Amino acid sequence: MASLPTISEAHFLHLKRKFTSNFGRRVLSACVLSLTILGFYSSYTWIAIDKSVNHLGRTSRPNCPILENLDTCVHYKTNITGVVELCGSISASIGDCQDRVYDQILTTKDFIEEVSEHATQRIAVQAVDIGAELDSFVQTRSRWSIDLMGRKGYELLISFKDHDRLTLHKELDQLQHRCNRFFYGSIYPFGFGSSYHNLGLALAYGMYYDMTLFTPIEHKYFIRTTTCTEADLQRSFSAHPPVTEYNDWDSSTINYKSMDVDVEPLMRKRTIISSKYKRKGHLWWRSMLTYYGIRPNFSLRELIRQAPSTAFSTPCISIHVRHSDKVNEATLIDLSKYMEHAYRYRAKTGVSTIYILTDDDQVINSTKDYSEFQFHYMDMARSNKGWQADTNDGIPRDEQEKLFLIDVFSAARCEHNIVTYSSNVGRLIGEMSYAIRNKKPDVVSLDVEWMMDP
After folding, report:
1. Do residues 86 and 64 make contact, with C-beta atoms less than 8 angstroms apart?
2. In what order do the strands lie in the sheet with 256-257?
3. Residue 119's beta-bridge partner residues?
4. Which residues, at least 6 apart from 352, have a Cβ–Cβ distance to it below 8 Å?
5. Residues 356, 342: contact at Cβ < 8 Å?
6. Of 138, 304, 384, 407, which has the fewest Cβ atoms less than 10 A away?
7. 222 close to 296: Cβ distance less than 8 angstroms
8. Rounded distance between C-alpha atoms, residue 323 and residue 326, angstroms
9. With b meaning 16 or more CB within 10 Å and e meaning fewer, what string describes 29-62?
10. How many Cα atoms occupy the beta-carbon half-sphere of 68 within 13 Å?
């Protein structure tokens, strides 16, 4: 199959010479697209895909990687025909996209690093099967996050024009890859939500005491929080033997090594926060740090994209109904109580798509009573006995974690969430929603308010 045409650098310069000699509007036909050359400045061409191209509007172009009404640059090496097929009418500069700062840049995988300092909100990468490369890129440039779902033939990198968040990510990128002073802490061997929150707590301690967090558990579904190696850790420990008792730890401590199976002793100061971020609040703080710790890697993103249950469009409502072992901690709440709020959301927003996660098959069966809504959920066994009982029954923890993460990140895709904040899972959904959108989540908790626990 013949490859689609691209605009080469030579072709780009030829276009510039041809059209700068004539200030009138010219139309160049290239295969199925029309480019209207509107003007020139520096070494850039301002283009617009001709309106004769069938343009169905933003909402009917869900795979288009370019958002409307943003200052856009298209790298001259990209396949313009492919963009037209997905987006219809667009307006953008064409060049190497390094002349100034743009809201969004469309590029190929070979130029991500070069253009990354010239985009403030989005980088659309015209490529497939580059998940591992993107993971490596964002590992040390955490202001960029990888869109969970991507687009057809594209990957998306997202950032936010938020000074505090950009400052936090810059500090994390410096601290987590410095490799000369370590906080060596492990994670609770309990529920997944609790484990991930402990990871966020450990990062908070690392930032407060200026230590690189190094965990003995390397999570197979997350982008690693550090590029430091075991050899770096041991070298630092040889030079400065780590403190192993939390009570002996103070601001002069070089290295700390948890001797417990988790960071439980550190929970005495679970609300620890860098002073410059106190005004942002603990919800923001914990959301950003926990998300940094559990950023989905290419393996998890692919699992999420391939799961039949995630084939729903946004906006949507997510509902988390936890029963099973929750009976030992809180009063169980019937689905009908959650649906009261779903009806309110629908009346307010018109949204009727619901992603539901639960450990109780009876809850799934009850969804048939609400025909006004379109429900999506994982097709899996639900024992309603809790993770520990499932483990004892022979269900591998890795399989449990995989399904759990698909559920949580699918729920966080939804703009509206109905949960119980007494649950680590409910809090995690709210926090991931906050981090993904960079705005306070629209969450209804049916029991308590959000809290830091752990």
Report:
1. yes
2. 212-214, 182-184, 256-257
3. 102
4. 346, 372, 373, 374
5. no
6. 384
7. yes
8. 5
9. eeeebbbbbeeeeeebbebebbeeeebeeeeebe
10. 11
Picking from 48, 64, 49, the residue whose alpha carbon sits closest to that of residue 156 is 64
Q: Which residues of 161-183 are buried (b: 16+ CB within 10 A; e: fewer)?
A: eeeebeebbebbbebbebbebbb
pLDDT digits (tens, 9 = 90+) for 224-271: 999 999 999 999 999 999 998 888 888 899 999 987 765 667 777 889
The fold for domain 308-445 equals: Rossmann fold (3.40.50)
Distance from C-alpha of 171 to C-alpha of 200, rounded to nearest angstrom? 15
For residues 238 and 156, give the distance between their C-alpha atoms in angstroms, rounded to a whole number: 42
- Phi, psi for residue 207 in degrees, rounded to 5: -65, -40
The widest CA-to-CA distance across the chain, in whole angstroms, is 78
Cα–Cα dist 35/12, whole Å? 12
Task: Tell whether omega for the bond before 241 is within 30 degrees of 0, i.e. cis.
Answer: no
For residue 49, the cross-strand partners are: 35
Q: Decide: 249 and 256 in contact? Cβ < 8 Å.
A: yes
DSSP element (H, E) containing 38:
strand 33-41
Residue position matching structure tokens 């497939």: 128
In whole numbers, what is the pLDDT of the chain averaged over residues? Answer: 85
Please tell me which residue, 3 or 282, carries the higher pLDDT value.
282
Query: For residue range 128-181, what is the model confidence (pLDDT) as tens digits?
Result: 999 999 999 999 999 999 999 998 899 999 999 999 999 999 999 999 999 999
124 close to 106: Cβ distance less than 8 angstroms: yes
> CB-based contacts of 389: which residues, under 8 Å, 6+ apart?
324, 325, 383
Specify whether the CB–CB gap between 212 and 174 falls below 8 A.
no
pLDDT score of 454 more than 90: no
CB 261 within 8 A of CB 186: yes
Instruction: Look up residue 202 and give its amino acid.
Output: A
Q: For residues 143 and 132, give the distance between their C-alpha atoms in angstroms, rounded to a whole number.
A: 17
The span from the first CA to the last CA of the chain, in angstroms, equals: 55
Token pair belonging to 336: 């009908």
Is the separation of the CB atoms in 354 and 319 below 8 Å?
yes
Q: What is the rounded CA–CA span in Å between residue 346 and residue 339?
A: 10
Q: Please give the single-letter amino acid code of residue 68.
A: E
Q: CB atoms < 10 A from the CB of 308, how many? A: 8
Instruction: Give the pairing type, strands 91-95 and 72-75.
Output: parallel
DSSP state of 296: B
